[in-house]
Write a structure and sequence with these properties.
heterodimer; A: alpha+beta; 5-stranded antiparallel β-sheet; 12 strands; B: mainly alpha; 18 helices; flat; disordered C terminus
């Protein structure tokens, strides 16, 4: 009985912790989803698989690297704060990078990738949003849709990313403004016709 | 139960009285403890594992047509079911091992499924080691609260995975060792349940996990890892000889088997020249060596093995030395010699030969055919390794093979003859018909 008096409250606390961690993940991402500023990142999707989370398309961004004056300042694996703006076509553009958290600007906290120096020093950026999960039957069709769109230089693929206080959520991936899920569904119907 | 059948048979044949039969039955009832249907436990755990993994796969399919809110609610369903089952077990079925093990197994998988699904809904790439660590931390208390051995085994698998993934992702995996200590605590607390299958599984899982993850410590001073590994094998071999474990059957004592096998395999690998010639040429002896993780691992493991060795030998009456016990000390000396002298390779070969001969001697002393043949296999493996050495003559190699082959025949024949004469099934040795 004494044992139960300790075990049951301990179990209740454990359950709360087990519920709190996923809840916390959801609430922080929901805040970004609802209140974050949207950026459109030009991207190239490919279709790999995760044993736990299923099929996703891997996003490789056009704005994935930046030139910096001093190579020694940047160490692979360290945090890098990317200040974002928009180009004339409305797509996301890196304005600057910094090692300190910027105040007031639209920024995203990323990870420093490779740092290589040729005539200039380039730092690659690992964004905290490089996956877009899809229903397994559609992931491959999505890749096909992208491959077709890539042949047509007029078509643009981009990820719609909400950003708030350095955190980010990929809301959707679109080809010429149409969600890739819709495009994949169109391809699926075309295959079965 | 086989014993009960035998008792009935003896009773019917009039060899034992009903009173004695009852006393024997009572003895086995007490020995086996509270009756738990092992098949129910096994199928309970298997069922929970399959259902849990099935849920992960179904959810991994990702239902695009469902709104985000519904998907988020669904993400919590496996977790809530797991928590409900565990809660119900604690309140209503606390004494049922099958309920405790199955519900804990399901809850651990459900935690992984929920975190995965939320990552999927919000497209969170996340580092895999962070995901595993969150899963481990949320699963760990289940072991103690539910008193679940299966949860403890799953925890050991998860932390081993975490240790390896951290290494692959090029981050430090030192946290693994702290997490392993937490697993050992359960093992020590519930040692009264020894003799059961779960205890046996732990005897294999814990040393195997440590052996796998020790490799992740390696960075730039790799030659030191050999000292670390031989000391780890020495340490786990000695753990296999502590009073709690030494009376277990050999197949149930993973420490003894892995400690001995690990030591022999490493030494056989080092009985070739390439490691020692590289060791003499290697410039790893730098000022930073004392701070290197390899040096720290080698030192800590050697000290731990030495302390256990001394404690064990102080209390041991009469004093006896098992074949693998002192190897980690001898290997350290050989390694130091190997830094400057090519003689180290000769000493390693002698050391393996010594372990083989001592194991054969131990097998003969204990009348244990398995240990005897293990010793012979060590010598054979050494001879096979030397077969690949080009600087030994064919005649010498041939004589070695023939000698070891005859050794196998002779030792086994002697042992079988001795066993038979002890059991009294055959007449004294001088009357055995000679072929």
């Amino acid at each position: 009985m004494v044992n139960k008096k300790i075990i049951l409250p301990a179990f209740a606390i454990l359950c709360m912790a087990q519920l709190f961690i996923p809840y916390n993940m959801i609430s922080s991402k929901e805040k970004v989803w609802k209140h974050g500023k949207e950026f459109r990142f030009r991207t190239e999707p490919i279709d790999p698989s995760d044993p736990f989370r299923g099929k996703y398309i891997n996003l490789s961004f056009a704005e994935g690297s930046v030139t910096v004056p001093n190579a020694d300042e940047w160490i692979q694996g360290n945090p890098i704060y990317v200040n974002l703006g928009e180009d004339e076509k409305g797509f996301a553009k890196i304005i600057s990078v910094s090692k300190e958290k910027p105040e007031g600007a639209d920024f995203v906290e990323a990870v420093t990738g490779y740092v290589y120096t040729d005539s200039i020093t380039t730092v690659t950026i690992h964004y905290p949003f490089d996956r877009f999960y899809m229903e397994e039957s559609k992931a491959y069709n999505a890749e096909l849709a992208y491959a077709e769109s890539a042949r047509d230089t007029m078509q643009v693929t981009y990820a719609l990313v909400a950003i708030k206080d350095g955190d980010a959520v990929v809301k959707d991936v679109l080809i010429n403004g149409v969600p890739i899920r819709e495009v994949a569904r169109y391809y699926e119907e075309k295959i079965y016709e | 139960m086989k014993v009960r059948k035998e008792i009935t048979e003896l009773l019917n044949a009039g060899i034992i009285t009903p009173e004695i039969a009852e006393r024997i039955n009572d003895y086995y009832d007490k020995k086996s403890g509270p009756s738990q249907n092992k098949i129910v436990i096994v199928f309970g755990i298997l069922g929970a594992l399959l259902v849990g993994l099935g849920i992960i796969l179904i959810l991994a399919s990702n239902w695009d047509d469902l709104p985000r809110t519904i998907k988020t609610v669904i993400a919590f369903v496996p977790l809530l079911i797991g928590q409900f089952c565990c809660g119900y077990t604690l309140i209503k079925k606390e004494e049922s091992v099958a309920w405790r093990e199955a519900s804990s197994t399901f809850l651990i998988i459900a935690i992984g499924a929920t975190i995965s699904l939320i990552s999927q809904i919000y497209n969170i790439p996340g580092r895999f080691d962070t995901f595993l660590l969150t899963w481990i931390m949320l699963s760990f208390p289940i072991i103690y609260i539910m008193r679940s051995s299966c949860a403890s085994l799953m925890y050991i698998i998860l932390i081993t995975w975490y240790g390896c993934i951290s290494y692959i992702d090029d981050t430090e995996s030192y946290l693994y060792w702290g997490l392993l200590l937490l697993a050992l605590l359960y093992y020590i607390l519930f040692k009264q349940e020894r003799g059961g299958n779960f205890f046996t599984f732990h005897n294999w899982f814990i040393p195997l996990s440590a052996i796998i993850v020790l490799g992740t410590v390696a960075r730039d001073a790799e030659p030191l890892m050999l000292i670390a590994y031989v000391s780890l094998c020495g340490l786990i071999y000695q753990i296999g000889n502590i009073p709690l474990l030494r009376d277990e059957k050999i197949r149930n004592n993973g420490y003894l088997v892995l400690g001995s096998l690990g030591t022999v395999v490493i030494l056989l690998g080092l009985s070739f020249d390439f490691f020692w010639s590289e060791l003499r040429d290697d410039q790893f002896w730098t000022n930073d060596l004392l701070k290197s993780p390899e040096f720290i691992a080698a030192s800590l493991l050697s000290i731990a093995a030495l302390i256990l060795f001394i404690m064990h030998k102080i209390n041991q009456r009469p004093f006896e030395l098992k074949p693998v016990e002192p190897v980690f000390i001898l290997f350290f000396i050989i390694w130091m010699i190997g830094l400057t002298s090519p003689m180290a390779i000769v000493f390693v070969n002698l050391l393996v030969l010594g372990i083989g001969v001592m194991t054969i001697r131990e097998g003969a002393k204990l009348h244990h055919l398995g240990i005897l043949n293990y010793g012979l296999l060590i010598v054979t493996a050494l001879v096979i390794c030397r077969f690949f050495d080009t600087d030994l003559g064919f005649i010498f190699k041939g004589i070695l093979f023939v000698g070891v082959g005859f050794g196998f025949f002779f030792a086994n024949y002697q042992m079988v003859r001795k066993k038979k004469s002890v059991s009294g099934n055959i007449p004294p040795t001088d009357s055995i018909p000679q072929n």
